[in-house]
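Why predict the complex rather than its parts? Because the way molecules touch one another can change local conformation, and only a joint prediction can capture that. The input here totals 556 residues.
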Amino acid sequence: MARHTLTTGLLALGFVAFSGALTWHGLNAAPAVDRPAVELDAAAVERGAYLVKTMGCHDCHTPWTMGPRGPEPDMSRALTGHPADFVMPPPPPLPPGPWLWLGAATNTAFAGPWGVSFTANLTPDKETGLGNWTAETFIAMLKTGRHEGKGRAVLPPMPVQVYAELTEEDMRAVFAYLQSLAPVHNRVPQPIDPPEAGQ
Amino acid sequence: MTRRVRGAFAVVLAAWGCAVTLQAGLTAGADAPPVVAPVPDLAPARLAETGLYVDGQAGAIDARNQPFTPQYVLWTDGLEKQRWVYLPPGEAIDATDEHAWEFPVGTRFWKQFSRQGRPVETRFSWRTASGWVFASYMWNEDGTDARRADEAGVPGVIEVAPGRGHSIPSQTDCTACHGTERPSPLGFTALQLSSDRDPHAVHGEAVTPGMVTLDTLVAEGRLPGARADLLTRPPRIRASDPETRAVLGYLASNCGACHNGRGEIAAFGPTIREADLVVDGDAVARALVGQRTKWQIPGVPDGESVLVAPGDPDASAVLVRMRSRRPSSQMPPLGTVVRDEAAVDLVTRWIARGRVP
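Output of the joint prediction:
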């Protein structure tokens, strides 16, 4: 119980830090970066910011670090996905029993029956993030559960089946917000197939 | 109150159902095989109700459903395929845009997959007044009846290689290939039905008497909007050598449905469009050379992976992904679990020769 309160407190702290980070980006990032070509609707961006904050995107797409009070999202790397320089060794085999999957200390890499998945860079960097995506790509990805809306299946634990329930307007808002972020170059590793995947 | 509303709803639904059956029957001509659709835009529950057969029972194909074979076929793990089209009598295809035919309401396509003569799955595309309806039917063990497969698809219905199964696609997978904004059937285009057929097409099938071709469509007056010299100058991939032509044909039918420069993935990967290939295929091939890809070839320095590296098959993402049948890297990403060795051989030779026209 006490622990629960503590966690909630930490989470709240995280969010405060998060909004701070956002303001920082908003104020400082503008001139230097290559802004997305699309006109962003301010109301949609604001709604998207709220949705991203409350739907857990930071839980997995922002790397977590061990702070003085326990694990917390590192907001200096908000939504940049699994850090390219945080190279994971092969996952240790699990003992027989009910434990099914493993997570990295950053909460950005996950090993399970699907192989190993790494969370995507959600900033609008053209080469390594969502810079070449359109709202249609994003909507199709959520609705089909396929990579870029067309490719392989999006892997767990990305909760696509949950976000597929969003209205299209909210999907657009989330995307508008993500496109408003400063692009960060971080090439997330490709997923690793499970050993039985063959050729 | 609630009950009354529900009752009224049921009546409306029933009337609606009739309207559809009637409408499909009417647009298809008085004696056409009807589609028995219970609800608009929902494919019938049984394949036999789609009008494929003479008497509504799996068996003899109704003669109004004509077979055809595209010159460049889609690889589907070596399963045998049969295709039929039904065009409503007296109706024309709007062929004004040679590479994006508009089919009349009532048009139906079927594609049947079999293994060793036993039918496994039959896909059905149906042009209704409100758009295209796609469905897939799964055959029973004895091959006597096929029922509409679950919306979510059916994994592993038959083994196509040791430990690898053919899956029936889900509804969303249908649109992944056929498109969302402008869905369309695939493989029935001017280029695919052209009389100028590519003798080197991978897994090319022979046109047999009775099949629909560009010539039969013109003869039947089905293509009133088409250019006057369609038959004397039939569409053909313009490439400076036969190998390039066959490679581009393969890529057009196996990659081009998604990689067509439109829609969700317009900015990713190659762009392979029939409209460009018939004008200057060599240019389409050249555009693949050195084009960066977000997907990284294992072992190639970060950010340097390209679609085609002439002379270096292992550094060509197109080929590396064609060779793979691992979910994270294989292309196409769905509809196949066994690699197409003949196509891999052709594309390997083409890249290895070191020059792209």
